[in-house]
Amino acid sequence: MDAFFPELSARFNALLPELLTRKLAVVGHARPDGDCIGSQIGLARVLAKAGADVVCVNADPVPRRLQFLTRSTRVLPAEEVLPVAKDYTALFVDCADGARCGHRLQGAFPRPMAMFDHHISNVGYAEHDFIDVRSAATAEILTGLFLDAGLEIDAEAAQGLYAGILTDTGQFRFHSTSRRSFMLAAELLARGARPAEAGFELYERESIGKLRLLEAFLQSLKLEAGGRVCIGILPKGVFASTGSDTEDTEGLVDYARSIDGVEIGVMIEERDNGAVKASLRAKDPVYRVDRIAAQFNGGGHACAAGLSLGQSLNEFYPALVAAIGAQLAAVQSEAS
Amino acid sequence: MDAFFPELSARFNALLPELLTRKLAVVGHARPDGDCIGSQIGLARVLAKAGADVVCVNADPVPRRLQFLTRSTRVLPAEEVLPVAKDYTALFVDCADGARCGHRLQGAFPRPMAMFDHHISNVGYAEHDFIDVRSAATAEILTGLFLDAGLEIDAEAAQGLYAGILTDTGQFRFHSTSRRSFMLAAELLARGARPAEAGFELYERESIGKLRLLEAFLQSLKLEAGGRVCIGILPKGVFASTGSDTEDTEGLVDYARSIDGVEIGVMIEERDNGAVKASLRAKDPVYRVDRIAAQFNGGGHACAAGLSLGQSLNEFYPALVAAIGAQLAAVQSEAS
Predict the structure, then answer these.
(1) Which residues contact B129 (CB under 8 A, 6 or more apart)?
(2) In this predicted structure, what is the pLDDT of residue A53?
(3) Cα(A107)–Cα(B234) distance, rounded to whole angstroms?
(4) Which single residue of B47, B140, B209, B283 could bond B52 by disulfide (Cβ 3.0 to 4.6 Å)?
């Protein structure tokens, strides 16, 4: 079989013997997502199986819905590793830059020995950079490297890597989803990945409170800008009244975006301190919602951005609608 | 490469020359879903490419969100084919029994020449039955047969077959999702299937009415059987009051099932004629919801079943709760 990553694998295979002699810390980014935790677990277990001494470490706790990935391999809190950081050689995964792992871990590991990532903004910061921006997930790169190297991937590593591909392709729906994503997923299933368990843990363990919150959000949806924008609001006190918490807001904005004809979906959260928080999602990167967010001291990606502002909802709402309207008009005039 | 379906493919390859001499009608089931339409389009286009004279026919119109699959190949209404049915040799797809295509088409084609299906309840009804109950989708069987036979799959056929696998695996989340599902998806992408388009058309073109219907459904959710069952109800008149239609009920039952602790999710639809329709979804095939549905003249799969009954909601609801409770108890006593 042809190699999945000919160039990266040549370099990875050359580095591997050296890696296996070190005491390794696999570091992921703060506020970890499925690709981060899955890649950390996958890399750590595969290297451990190959004989290395490895730990995983993260500045933030593993979110509830990702804890099924860390049953057999712990992700240590930064406090446990920082005092003995000098004993470890660091490998970074899914971090577009060194700061993404949090300032304390970055301070301890200013120049990792290797880094594996797929973010387009990554310009490299390790001794050995393994970047492939056409991969849908960091877990996709790692899986390909492991298979190319003939390394053993056990069932728990396979499940972590599978979860990374699943989440970072948006369940195989994003534009980044490629033939290779599916080929690698098939190989992971052959090694013990369990798609039904991953789907269940990631998407079928909602609280009834989360569904009540969704209900409240749907009820608030309003079309703006002639139906091209849809905005939903989570008013003050909604978490208490629905029995949900802030973690449950994940994915709500996608409902606002999912409506036919809507180009930009927005979720506005009214904070108890009177401030507002907003998430913006575009169907097409041409809308550059990061630029809209930037006008309110926020930022992000072309299709997904956010902001936090010390403003009342009554002040903020019309200002946001005006800013989005201006951006839609600007894009339209550029296109014509 | 090994064959995907050694036994089925041997029989399919033997039948193929005969098929290509006939005037063929590819028939799917009434109220068609993604696997039905995707399989119809896939089979029709691949056989047409191989030289056959083929049409697709269905008793019901292609749902709006599946119309991206029928841009290049029409699915004819039954009325267009029935008057000349005797000219056609029928191939059935995704129909667990001959009646699933509707009584008029069944009357016209009482014994199809071939049938392709993955439903567990299918006992065969064609001259040549191609059944594989371990396949997640009929489109999975067809894709494997086409690849095994070395038949050309063009981009539109690939997209149809991909959509069939995507929808019938619940976006690669159901227990039926296998290594083979992913291998076949990879092969379809290599032939032009477009996962981002499929994801967008299937899941990001909701009407605002659909979201209002979801809101009403969420509001109706009730836990039963100590939290192991969640039931939502769509009362008479809800489509008019929310601006939705029956097509928009797709996927609602998954919300009932998605709650942590819930084993079986149910959606009950109260029909204008006083009858009820119910969809049952289990998290684990051990619950055999097809057996529960069978007690009400319904049927389906171990994890996904449905029924239609001339009963009032007030009669049906307690009977269903009792039947589900008995099934949960039976499974529990078997396990202990």
Answers:
(1) B114, B115, B117, B122
(2) 97
(3) 56
(4) B47
- Going A127 to A181 to A168 to A289, the CA torsion angle's sign is positive
pTM above 0.95, yes or no: no
Q: Provide the β-strand partners of residue B54.
A: B24
Q: What is the torsional sign of CA A71, A38, A107, A87?
A: positive
Contact B155, B49 (CB under 8 A): no
Using CA atoms, how far apart are residues B307 and B298, in angstroms rounded to an integer? 4
Coil, strand, or helix at residue A270?
strand
Please judge whether B219 and A223 are an interchain contact, meaning their C-beta atoms are less than 8 angstroms apart.
Answer: no
CA-to-CA separations, A90 to A123, A240, B70, B141, in angstroms, rounded: 18, 42, 52, 46
CB B263 within 8 A of CB B256: no
CATH no. for A6-203: 3.90.1640.10
Instruction: Sketch the domain layout of chain A as residue ranges.
Output: 6-203, 208-335
For residue B241, count other CB atoms closer than 10 A to its CB: 13
> What distance in Å separates the CA atoms of residue B36 and residue A324, rounded to the nearest whole number?
40
Report residue B268: phi and psi, to 5°.
-115, 130
Give me the sign of the Cα torsion angle A272, A274, A275, A280: positive
**Residue A247 has which token pair?**
């973690």
Q: Do domains B6-203 and B208-335 have the same CATH topology?
A: no
- The answer to whether B99 contacts chain A (CB < 8 Å) is no
Fold of A208-335: Diaminopimelate Epimerase; Chain A, domain 1 (3.10.310)
- Label residue B25 left, alpha or beta by phi (over 0 means left) and psi (-120 to 50 means alpha): beta
Place of tokens 């050689």: A89
Closest to A255 (Cα-Cα) out of B4, B114, B67, B208: B208
The answer to whether A2 contacts chain B (CB < 8 Å) is: no
- Cβ distance of A206 and B258 shorter than 8 Å: yes
Q: So what's the pLDDT on residue A273?
A: 85
Average pLDDT of B185-192? 98
Would you tell me how many other CB atoms lie within 10 Å of the CB of residue B125? Answer: 18
For residue A42, give how far its alpha carbon lies from the nearest alpha carbon of chain B (Å): 19
User: Quick check: B242 pLDDT over 90?
Assistant: yes
